[in-house]
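$ ./design --mode recover --in tokens.txt
reading tokens...
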């Protein structure tokens, strides 16, 4: 299968700036999401490679997929400075080349952007070794006024501006629906509650491959 890539110049420019100026809160969440990982890891949609610096040295190899043609070279630069070996492949998860099973899969801020989250989560389940773990750090659907804002954003300009990001997804339900068993999980805020953005609440968790 030919690797699928994307070319969203506006999103790539915005994400390059945003990922270079992340808050301490975001960095702590990235560290938490990767803590205790070991062995071979698949990272889906690595962006500029912001996670790479936070992998513990018990990880022996990271295979990082990044389909956005302007972000993959930045991820490669971050890979060269990472504390663990990272190989960046320019591909979507749906078209990734065949690989040996992984000990863990990392998804951060990416399940909002894939076209078919249920299908992708089943695929992620299938590329894990028995007992393998999905680590996720994903913004999620919220109740109340922000939920309304999310629906409006998703139906209008947000996905077009933000690389197909959909803000009102019940990602943890999709994770469980794909056969994962969610272990530890928590919700957190990336911005103060009054900030009028559709993305604010995130789910951070660990889920184990199911049968
Ligand atoms: C908001 S960025 C997050 C980047 C990175 N995961 C992080 O935490 O900083 C979403 C990323 O997912 C990538 N992406 C979107 N659809 C994808 C797909 N189908 N397969 C793999 N990556 C995808 C985008 O190119 C983008 O780099």
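writing sequence...
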């Amino acid at each position: 299968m030919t690797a699928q890539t994307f070319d969203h110049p506006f999103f790539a420019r915005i994400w390059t700036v945003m990922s270079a100026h992340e808050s301490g809160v975001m960095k702590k969440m990235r560290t938490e999401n990767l803590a205790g990982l070991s062995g071979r890891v698949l990272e889906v949609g690595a962006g500029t490679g912001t996670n790479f610096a936070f992998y513990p040295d018990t990880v022996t190899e990271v295979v990082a997929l990044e389909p956005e043609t302007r972000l993959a070279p930045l991820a490669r630069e971050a890979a060269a400075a990472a504390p663990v070996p990272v190989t960046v492949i320019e591909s979507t998860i749906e078209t990734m080349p065949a690989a040996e099973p992984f000990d863990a899969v990392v998804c951060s801020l990416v399940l909002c952007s894939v076209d078919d989250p249920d299908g992708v989560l089943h695929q992620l389940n299938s590329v894990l070794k028995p007992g393998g773990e999905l680590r996720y750090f994903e913004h999620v659907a919220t109740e109340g006024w922000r939920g309304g804002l999310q629906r409006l954003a998703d139906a209008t300009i947000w996905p077009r501006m933000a690389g197909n990001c959909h803000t009102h997804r019940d990602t943890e339900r999709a994770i469980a629906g794909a056969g994962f068993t969610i272990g530890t999980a928590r919700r957190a805020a990336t911005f103060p509650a009054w900030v009028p953005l559709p993305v604010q609440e995130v789910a951070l968790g660990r889920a184990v491959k199911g049968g």
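exit 0
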